[in-house]
Amino acid sequence: MKSRLTAHILIFCLSWVAAFSLSAMESSKSDLHEASFYHQLENGFVQCVLCPRRCTISKGNRGFCGVRENQGGRLYSLVYGKPCSLHIDPIEKKPLFHFLPGSEAFSLATVGCNLKCKFCQNWQISQAAVEDVEAVSLTPEEVVRKVKASGAPVIAYTYTEPTIYYEYMYDIARLARAAGIKNVMHSAGFINEEPLRQLCPYLDAANIDVKGFNDRFYSEMTLGNLQDVLRTLKILKSEGVWLEITHLIIPGINDDPEETRKLCRWIKENLGPETPLHLSRFWPMYQLVHLSPTPVSTLQKARQIAQEEGLQYVYIGNVAGTEGEDTFCPKCKAKVIDRSGYVITAIHIVNGKCAFCGNKIEGVWNGNKYEEITNNQVTNSKQ
């Protein structure tokens, strides 16, 4: 019988499937990886302390994320070494605009997530069960070898929530660091302090989603919590990880200009005005297909608000052909990075400074493919 059963078959075969699943789990236990950050409790229960949910899980059951399971009173990751998505992307797609521009990022993900965002763009894998998505077997050592063979200088943990495959990410990141490969992640930031701080020494950059700026939005639209995300941002900043923020603006849901203003003030006061902010356009998907795309005028107004509040690098995402794609010097206002989608057409940053006025442009520039290119050479290549 096929493992992927339709809903009406499941109604009649639930007990059979349960018995089969338990048998399969026991037989494949040697393939699993014991989880980090959990406590063993009485009567075979365990408590996962990786993320703020702190799930208490009985034997044979899984946590909220669907990929961490209690087997015999121990917690195991069901996705360690089992990525379901592998691609080489431009680093700008993460999006990271101030970290090795023009570089390629070897990107990977597994099934699962510890949030339930109604607007998730990768819901087919983030909200799926482990059994319902095909994955490949790839050890951390094999991942690093593949990255080295590809020539990509960066590994990106992305597409789904990297927190839920923490052990896999952590082991890859340590090997990658030893091999001279950078590590970046795109995350919702819903992670506890201890595991985050343990990861930070191997993490070079992060883009964190701030999905809204009030607790009600997080509760209703993501089943998460805003304060935990804000704490993550502060920790990353304090640990010296290069940080950028993405804020998806959904029409009629979180597009209040005053809320945008409050978010920008918080960023400036707690993270610094040099923190890049990506204001991303919503496209109808998953459980919000009844909504319209975000008007470009809404995004432009939000960008204006962010600039009024003193943020130096504010971008508009998912909209091609606007100046919101480009990087401008905060001092002389010259365009220092010219982008068209994910492609850089010109860059005017020399030794981390504006080529026109010498002002420092915040970011991580050393090692990008433009590092040795002079301003004149880049200008000529654009013509």
Describe the structure.
It is a single chain. By secondary structure, the chain is of the alpha/beta class. The protein has three domains: 31-78; 85-325, Aldolase class I (TIM Barrel, Alpha-Beta Barrel); 327-383, no CATH class. It has helices spanning 7-27, 123-126, 140-150, 166-178, 193-199, 215-221, 226-238, 257-270, 296-308, 375-382, and strands at residues 33-34, 38-40, 46-48, 56-57, 68-71, 74-77, 85-90, 104-109, 154-157, 182-187, 205-209, 242-249, 277-281, 314-317, 327-328, 335-340, 343-347, 349-350, 353-354. The chain has an eight-stranded mixed β-sheet. α8 packs across α9. The termini are far apart. The model is unreliable at 1-28 and 371-383 (pLDDT under 50).
Q: Which spans have pLDDT < 50 for at least 5 consecutive residues?
A: 1-28, 371-383
The CATH class assignment of the largest domain is: Alpha Beta
Which whole number gives the mean pLDDT?
Answer: 90
Number of strands: 19
Order of helices and strands: HEEEEEEEEHHEHEHEHHEHEHEEEEEEH
Supply the CATH architecture of the largest domain: Alpha-Beta Barrel
Strand content: 15-25%
Write down the CATH topology of the largest domain.
TIM Barrel
> How many discrete domains?
3
Q: What characterizes the major β-sheet? A: 8 strands, mixed
Give helix % range: 25-40%
End-to-end gap: 62 Å
Strand order of the largest sheet: 7-8-9-10-11-12-13-14
The CATH homologous superfamily of the largest domain is termed: Aldolase class I
User: Structural class, please?
Assistant: alpha/beta
What is the number of helical segments per DSSP (H or I, 4+ residues)?
A: 10
Q: Indicate the overall shape.
A: globular
